[in-house]
Amino acid sequence: MKYHIVQLGCQMNISDGERVQNMLDKMGFVPTDREEEANLLGVIACSVRQKAIDKVYSRIQKWNKWKNKKNLITFVTGCVLPADREKFLKQFDMVFTMSELPGLPEMIQQYGIVTPAGMQSLDKGLQEMELPKNEGRNEAAFRLKNAVLPQDKANIPHPEKGIEEFWHITPKYGSGYEAYIPIQNGCNKFCTYCAVPYTRGREVSRPSGEIMKELEDLVKRGYKSITLLGQNVNSYGLDKKGEEVSFAGLLDMIGKFGNSRKEKFWLYFTSPHPRDMTDEVIEVIAQYPCLAKQIHLPVQSGDDAMLQHMNRNHTIEKYRSIVRTIRRLLPEATLFTDIIVGFTGETEEQVENTRKAIEEFRYNMAYIAQYSPRPGAVSSRWIDDIPKEVKKARYHRLTEELMKHSLAYNQDLIGKTMDVLVRGKDRKPGYLSALTEGKIIVRFPSANESLIGKFAKVKIHSAVPFSTEGELITKDVEHPVNA
Q1: Phi and psi at residue 227, to the nearest 5°
Q2: What span, in angstroms and rounded, lies between the C-alpha atoms of 228 and 216?
């Protein structure tokens, strides 16, 4: 029996999907890239963006038509707003939160799908059934009654409840050298453009002991790039004051562990909120080689009035002071950010202030999103008064400013030899693609795919905005190519 999962949304959803996949593997299902072959079809949904929800509806309409020809089960989980959940209950066979994932085997058994893990509990019932002679059992098609799932929103558990049990599920990592570790779930910030607090609930910090255990296991297994995930990672531990370490304390634990190991790895985190970023976090990163010198610090807008409109609860001066500390203590660090352009009520002066912020902070990368209302967020009740063509023009203006600083930084790398992690084949034929510690793309000519997932040294000889090109110097950081 096969399963196919469609993953939508952010890195947190990808991490959640890895735990769903491992649960299904343990139940005896086999993954398939061809959804038409699957007996079990699922979506890791994202209610944060309307386009992602539209994709969910498109998928389930197609899948439900397939039920006229074959026996299959559908489910949806992930970031789902209450309003979407109510609609999904009418279209999917199973709708559950990530905190309910440990109960997935029982949910599936209610639908009569027999898996190797479920055979023992179902075997007795099957044996007691009277079947016509010479008629074999088709366990994959055998159906019990439909599962009784909650139809009342009040009975659907709040996303934060039971999340600790979900974290105990071992993920099926999608890579042999890169991995995500969730350290926190939910958000307390309530930015007016964001629906996350309504899909994932309030902030809940994962026990640091569990985080360290997962990290230590990954490093021992040879993982090279590990990212801590949370909606606001630097507010880690604030919900358990006196019981848990702070985010800086967690990074310090990881740094000390890294110093004790011979294996090389880079530890990243995303995303922090400027409101909770402390000098202590930056000071800890400066102390330990394994803590990657790359900071993703969302600014969203370069205008104080707009930041207040977004309920960001930080000012540009507060943000500026953080960047100054980063430049002072981590001069080699790259700086990434998130920006929303065309938010409700944005003026020409405000978008110009955002352009000036890009100019001042010299970002290596900015994920610039043209605003669209998120159902469930506060701003979805406001008039989306910036025309699409204006948003697009502003987007290009900010992108052009970003490209200047990305190119200038990358050109300064020319002639330097950089440690890189090789990630796969590049779009350019005959080349491999890698990332520096600061997550700058480096491509180099090589057909040796055995380098993928390993560290190497590359000498940079050319640069364009957002990427560089170079020549392989060593296969890894210890052994020369011609050795």
Answers
A1: -120, 125
A2: 13
Domains of the chain: 2-155 (3.40.50.12160), 167-404 (3.80.30.20), 417-474 (2.40.50.140)
Contact assessment for residue 40 and residue 73, using Cβ atoms and an 8 Å cutoff: yes
One pLDDT digit (tens) per residue for the chain, 483 residues: 888 988 877 777 787 778 888 888 877 788 898 888 888 888 888 766 667 777 888 888 888 888 877 778 888 887 777 777 778 888 888 888 777 777 777 777 665 443 333 333 333 333 333 333 333 323 232 222 233 333 333 433 344 456 676 677 677 777 899 998 989 988 888 899 887 777 777 888 999 999 999 999 999 999 999 999 888 999 999 999 889 999 999 999 999 999 999 999 999 998 899 999 999 999 999 999 999 999 999 999 999 999 999 999 999 999 999 999 999 999 999 999 999 999 999 999 999 999 999 999 999 999 998 998 876 789 989 999 999 999 999 999 999 999 999 999 999 999 999 999 999 999 999 999 999 999 999 999 999 999 999 999 999 999 999 999 999 998 665 444 433
Angle between helices 388-412 and 348-361 (to 10 degrees): 10
Strands 467-474 and 431-436: what pairing? unpaired
Q: What's the rounded Cα separation, in Å, for the pair 307 and 387? A: 20
Cα–Cα distance between 257 and 252 in angstroms, integer? 9
